[in-house]
Write a structure and sequence with these properties.
Elements (H helix, E strand, L loop, with lengths): L2 E5 L2 E3 L5 E8 L7 E7 L6 E6 L5 E3 L7 E6 L4 E6 L8 E8 L5 E3 L3 E5 L2
Parallel strand pairs: 2-11
Antiparallel strand pairs: 1-3, 3-8, 4-5, 4-9, 5-6, 7-8, 9-10, 9-11
Length: 116
């Protein structure tokens, strides 16, 4: 059974930082492209950042250096480091695992709220 379990979300003040983690089980983690998406209230889910099996990075349209993605294949975990957070970053952040041309898997999401 495939599981993607996100953690690390919470309430943070504007300008603060958070690191999200997504721990995978039930898949051969190293052969999956991993990605973080987010969905704000009333908006569509959008790509934040993705990282391929060889470490190449896929960027969502809004990312401008504040967020970075990394993966640890030994720990079967992908991370999202978010710095200088803004209120508009408030969303549920989802982890995704996908192989090219095949369906993917989603985590349950972790809520990030940026507010003073």
């Amino acid at each position: 059974q495939v599981q993607l379990v996100e953690s690390g979300g919470g309430l943070v003040q504007p300008g603060g930082s958070l690191r999200l983690s997504c721990a995978a089980s039930g898949i051969i983690f190293s052969i999956y492209t991993m990605a973080w998406y987010r969905q704000a209230p009333g908006k569509q889910r959008e790509l934040v950042l993705g990282i391929t099996t060889d470490g190449s990075i896929n960027y969502g349209g809004f990312v401008k250096g504040r967020f970075t993605i990394s993966r640890d294949n030994a720990k079967k975990t992908v991370y999202l480091q978010m710095n200088n957070l803004k209120p508009e970053d408030t969303a549920v952040y989802y982890c995704n695992a996908k192989q090219p041309g095949l369906g993917g898997f989603w985590g349950q999401g972790t809520l990030v709220t940026v507010s003073s």
